[in-house]
Specification:
The chain is mostly helical. It has two domains: 14-54, no CATH class; 60-178, AhpD-like (Up-down Bundle), CATH 1.20.1290. It contains nine helices and no strands. The longest helix is centred in the C-terminal third of the chain and has 24 residues, at 144-167. The relative contact order is 0.16.
């Protein structure tokens, strides 16, 4: 397998340097995912923008975590599950919710479980969901705008999850303690 370069301030393409500076400002470091993405300034910029837009979607921290982690786990992303575990802890998401998502278990809150189930259906169906799945989602208190925001979250996670699969992005030290292995199917 080809080794992907982890770029930093000194060796990144010129168009990626300001983007890496933004990552460093936001995270206190350049996450390895961003270091890999820097080979394509367009990908890194797109990822950062989608992350920012999804974070501003109006979903609570718990709901953001449900969408992100449901997709990460379904895509079996060795990097994003631990990274979003650390992010969820910084966002003060309950450990029980974090663990349930990592372990593919039903979450205790029925509205969050409806969000998890709909996100799974959307990912597994590659965007095709049944009217019944939509009605269950709406019945939990969500609206059309939430369906569309989940699609935005999926787009963001496809960028990161696929990059990490191909690049075998090494986990950052701060996330080592949250390492994760997918369950056997």
């Amino acid at each position: 397998m080809t080794t992907f370069t982890l770029f930093d301030d000194s060796n990144a393409p010129e168009a990626s340097k300001s983007l890496l500076a933004k990552s460093k400002q936001n995270f206190g470091m350049i996450p390895n995912l961003h270091a890999v993405m820097a080979a394509s300034p367009q990908l890194l910029e797109g990822y950062q923008k989608l992350h920012e837009l999804f974070a501003q979607s109006g979903f609570s921290n718990d709901e953001l975590t449900v969408v992100w982690q449901t997709i990460n786990v379904e895509h079996r992303c060795h990097y994003c599950v631990p990274a979003h575990t650390g992010i969820a802890k910084q966002m003060e998401v309950d450990d029980g919710l974090i663990d349930a998502l990592r372990n593919e278990e039903i979450v205790g809150d029925s509205k969050l479980e409806a969000l998890r189930q709909f996100t799974l259906a959307l990912v597994r169906g590659r965007g095709e969901v049944s009217q019944d799945q939509l009605e269950k989602f709406y019945g939990a208190g969500y609206e059309q705008k939430h369906v569309l925001m989940i699609i935005l979250g999926v787009a963001q996670k496809v960028m990161s999850n696929y990059t990490n699969h191909i690049a075998q992005t090494p986990l950052d030290k701060p996330f080592d303690k949250f390492s994760w292995t997918p369950q056997e199917n």
